[in-house]
Amino acid sequence: MAIIECEDITVRHPHAPTPAVSGLSTFVEQGEWLNIVGPNGCGKSTLLHAFAQVLSLESGRLKMGEGDVEKHFAFGLKAAKQRRFFARTVALMPQNPTIPAGLSVFDYVLLGRHPHSYAPGRADDEIVKRCLADLKLEHFSDRGLDELSGGERQRVSLARALAQEPRIVLLDEPTSALDIGHAQETLELIDAIRHRLGLTVIAAMHDLTLTAQYGDRVLMMNGGRKVFEGTAAEVLTAQRISEIYDARVIVEVIDGRPVVIPQRSH
């Protein structure tokens, strides 16, 4: 059953002369992991922000969960309740999360409970502790956010997203600040949590080999449009990567999954 369906959606940043996403249609099944790839500026992050209602649709239809997402945001009490319900359904981990000064890791992750409770209690504290433990961050609980490395902040931001107890998790470059070991560990943890909780994961990714190792399907974008969609083996071919990225690569298939190797010109 599809938990996300979008039909011919177009998304434009405020005051931008051209759309960042144009005429895109796709779907995501409940419990699926979809990776979105493409060159810089192709619209990956914009698409995630449309899914998260950070950006509104210019046209098209977007269904998330049980209802359509309005083309333009409304105001008033009813809209506030709708946003609160939406925040319990969808969590976004941005590429460069805003980290408030003066907060501990625990208190920052506790902010993820806001859609569920205006006055967090013991049950909320236990959920935060579980999320920190899931991401192996429990020993960071009392540390200040300003004491963390960029990679540690990314994982704390992910813990905050999981503390919302969403059905859909949107990840914008979840491994951009991580070395290969921590990137692999983080993606393994996300996959384990996804299977345990039945989460749907949509991630904008740059590393094509990591993209192939984790996830069920790949959506490749270019110029704001979907150009290919399918399994990693179907999408991440040397010909398609060369065409879309203007890059020389060799693609080897190991254990059924593509490994992308840059090829020097000389």
Automatic annotation (TrEMBL):
Native species: [Brevibacterium] flavum
Keywords for the protein's UniProt record, in alphabetical order: ATP-binding, Nucleotide-binding, Translocase, Transport
GO molecular function: ATP binding; ATP hydrolysis activity
PROSITE patterns assigned: ABC_TRANSPORTER_1, ABC_TRANSPORTER_2
Protein name: ABC transporter ATPase
Domain ABC transporter: 4-248
Domain of life: Bacteria
InterPro entries from the UniProt entry: AAA+_ATPase, ABC_transporter-like_ATP-bd, ABC_transporter-like_CS, P-loop_NTPase
